[in-house]
Request: fold
Amino acid sequence: MSLHIPDELLTALSSAERVVVLTGAGISAESGVPTFREAQTGVWAQYDPRELATPQAFARNPRLVWEWYEWRRKLIQQAKPNLAHHALVDLEQAIPAFLLVTQNIDGFHWLAGSRDMVELHGNIARTKCFEEGHVVGWWPETDDVPPRCSSCDGPLRPDVVWFGEGIPEQALRTAFDATAGCDLFISIGTSAVVQPVASLPLLAKRMGARVLEINRDQTALSVLADWSLRDKASQLLPELIRRLGYPTNAIDGA
Ligand code: BV8
Reply:
């Protein structure tokens, strides 16, 4: 059954030369990775992720925050990129100037083959020293939770951006510059509320780009988008690639 895709959107996509794609937790939902709001099941259901994903929470209870990330890391290690991630690799290869901006920390875009991309909120697979800030590839196996930095003995933490922390400057500048110059901005699987990322589609609109939203639920962006499709990313994106006649890398049922 082919999904309803407006002809005007297909025309805009096939003629787009500079495309920015923004993704959020919704694109990994079908890989079995719960979205940021749904992440809380079992013992974690009693916590608000926005309370846990902060330097204050880590300073107050480093073991609790470290164990929450360990739990999420294990969920991600048991999952893999889905057809939506692979369709974005096809799009990257078909569009002359393309940038993928992700809020996700699961690394699935890189794993699927995306290369013209920035991770604005870091990556759960990387660990850094809470005190010194440098990424740590190894630490001595001890009973400490969280483990300690081998050079300063400070606690280790995931290399992700917590609420109240700045986004990596270079990545943020790359995202804003590409957005200001794009002719099509596509927002996929994000509630579009977390700042400063949520201001990207508004900047695109202000600079004259068309905006496409692909999201299961209505969001604050839906009324501003030129097209807002209430579909699952892993169904709609491969269908877009098919209708545009672009080659695909996805292995069936990947
Ligand atoms: C900063 C990493 C300053 C950690 C994350 C201005 C106004 C108001 C508030 C602020 C503001 N400026 C700053 C703030 C504070 C804050 C903020 O934005 N708060 C919000 C709550 C209002 N922002 C910050 O703190 C940022 N830092 O601005 O610092 C500064 C500057 C310089 C120096 C020092 C400080 C940092 C924000 C980064 C926080 N870290 N993640 C971790 O993951 O543990 S954010 C985290 O939540 C995610 O990364 C993601 O970005 C966000 C959740 O959003 P989504 O990805 O959209 O996920 P969500 O579940 O919400 O939605 C999923 C959607 O998918 C749903 O709509 C659903 O319908 C859809 N969906 C589901 N399945 C599918 C689907 N769609 C399609 N297909 C499907 N199958």
Summary: The chain has a mean pLDDT of 94. Residues 24-26, 29-30, 35-37, 50, 53, 103, 105, 121, 160-166, 189-191, 193-196, 215-217, 219, 232-233 surround BV8 (CB under 6 Å). The first strand starts at residue 18 and ends at 23. The two ends are 20 Å apart (CA to CA).
